[in-house]
Amino acid sequence: MGSKPGEYRGGRQKGTPNKATAEAKLAISELAKTLAPDALRRLATLARKAKSEAAQVAAIREILDRAYGRPAQAVTLAGGEGPPIRTQTISDETVLAAMRELGERVRSVGVPAPESSPVEQQTAH
């Protein structure tokens, strides 16, 4: 009998790789680490002696990316195809008040409160 849509049937949690995948990735990573010194030396040779400037620049970029990480990229947050999403900084007090209000709303529909919540701990001090 098949499962109904949305029905939990057990198994790994979403995003958890299986054991064979994790072991394969580890083996590949270990092999790559053994080859890395030779690869870096080859990149250094290409950066100095490649005949085309494009190959030299590509090798230099690879070396710098590994040494310092890739440069940060600008990201624009937008709501779908619409205008950029507006952000607003709010105070801790405002967040705590909103959490208290949400807790009251949840309790008003019959959901029991946890024994101790971070909001209650914050307001107790």
Description:
- The protein has 125 residues and is mainly alpha-helical.
- Among the domains are: 19-68; 92-124, no CATH class.
- Helices cover 57% and strands 0% of the residues.
- Helix 1 crosses helix 2.
- The longest helix is centred in the first third of the chain and has 31 residues, at 19-49.
- The model has no long low-confidence stretch (mean pLDDT 81).
Summarize it.
The protein is an all-alpha fold and about 120 residues long. About 55% of the residues lie in helices and about 0% in strands. The protein contains 4 helices and no strands.
How does the major sheet shape up? none
Average pLDDT rating: 81
**Beta fraction:** under 5%
Unreliable segments (pLDDT under 50, ≥5 consecutive)?
none
Report Rg.
27 Å
Overall body shape: extended
The counted number of beta strands is 0
SSE run: HHHH
Q: What is the helix fraction of residues, given as a range?
A: 55-70%
Amino- and carboxy-terminal Cα gap: 55 Å
Please work out how many helical segments DSSP would assign. 4
Structural class: mainly alpha
